Amino acid sequence: MNETIKNQLNHRTIREFKDEKLDDGVIEALLNVANMAPTSNGMQFFSIIKVTDQELKKKFAANGLQDYMARAPHLWIFIVDLYRNYNIAKENGQENDEMIGFDKFIQGFTDAIISAQNVAVACESLGLGVNYFGNIHNDTKKVIELLDLPKLTYPAVGLGFGLPNQEPQLKPRMDINLKTFENSYQVFNNYNKKIADYDKEMTTYYDLRDANRRVDSFSIQIPKKQGTVIANRDRMFETLLDQGFIIDKKMKS
Known about the structure:
Layout: H1 3-9, H2 24-35, E1 46-51, H3 54-64, E2 74-81, H4 83-91, H5 102-125, E3 129-133, H6 140-147, E4 153-162, H7 191-194, H8 196-202, H9 218-225, H10 236-242, H11 249-252
Helix pairs in contact: 2-5
């Protein structure tokens, strides 16, 4: 097994970093890694905003309700970007609504996430820690305002990284056999029975955000996390429309 796979199997979310910035050469290499990520149809529907202003980081942390976000030495926001290509076409008198439809938005979201994961794998190969910040969707409209994003762009995910200053426990994962099927989806008769061992294993895990308390079993976490709406996240679709993406052609007519 090579070192890259070993690092991936040892992945931990790092929330506390040493107060040290990485060398410019490392940052340049990570940007090149992001740039060379697979992209749908070669259209490169993503951009990266490096958040270096500490006051801006604090605003992101407040918006995302995670104070440690402000302590990430490096914070990059990966965004869906249809603005760039649309304007290239517009300058050539060739723009059309197909360029900003839902299909292209999904391609852009995928491009942004794949690019972020490329960077995450590269970071961990260098001994760095990473933390994905999906909390930018707590109030996506606010993030758009903070980053001064134009129409036809949309924040996909944040990534904090740097030299780790903690060693969290490896978080258990559900048996891969419950997530892997051949040729068609498999439905089980009793899911609680299937995850019984995993439920027990999860209660042995300590999340360093609350290090004195073990986490709930996975089955208990489902209604708490998946079954509740985080404030303002129910406005994400509305914000998507405000950004100029055409989700339904009927809306345009």
